[in-house]
Amino acid sequence: MVRKIAFTVYSVRDLERARRFYEEDLGLVKTADYQGGWVEYDPPGGCFAITSYLEEVRPSADSGGTIAFEVDDVDALTARLQAKGVAVKVEPFSTPVCRMSIVLDPDGNAVILHRLTD
């Protein structure tokens, strides 16, 4: 029986470059660093990790699961990231229940920026 989601992980090629994106650009706070190759963040709702240990797993925006981070302002964060040179895969758009966009981390992993409609 599944008890909970233990973590979501993205494979990255350059851990320091990825850390700058997730920590400086998205504002995640590092909660664990295992031997310099596995870094964890624990925002409300679960654990997200990045790792350079999974050499056989290629980073990609098209390879399967994608993480979605709940943010204060999808449009403002998307614009700020784009101004810093971050690739925007899908510009901000609205659904009946939320607003979201999709950006790519430095390794090409898709990251959804999401905001539920109040």
Key terms:
alpha/beta, globular, four-stranded mixed beta sheet
Task: Provide an overview of this structure.
- It is a single chain.
- This protein is α/β, with parallel strands linked by helices and 118 residues long.
- The chain has one domain: 2,3-Dihydroxybiphenyl 1,2-Dioxygenase, domain 1, CATH 3.10.180.10.
- It has a four-stranded mixed sheet, covered by helices on one side. A four-stranded mixed sheet has the order 5-8-7-6, with helices on one face.
- Strand 7 and strand 8 form a beta hairpin.
- It is globular.
- The model has no long low-confidence stretch (mean pLDDT 91).
Task: Please work out how many helical segments DSSP would assign.
Answer: 2
What are the low-pLDDT stretches, counting only 5+ consecutive residues below 50? none
CATH architecture assignment: Roll
CATH C-level class: Alpha Beta
> What general outline do the C-alpha atoms trace?
globular
User: Approximately how much helix is present in the residues?
Assistant: 10-25%
The count of strands amounts to: 8
Quick one: CATH superfamily?
2,3-Dihydroxybiphenyl 1,2-Dioxygenase, domain 1
Instruction: Please trace the helix and strand order, writing H or E for each element.
Output: EHEEEEHEEE
Structural class: alpha/beta
Strand order of the largest sheet: 1-4-3-2
CATH topology: 2,3-Dihydroxybiphenyl 1,2-Dioxygenase, domain 1
Radius of gyration, whole Å: 14 Å
Strand composition percent: 35-45%
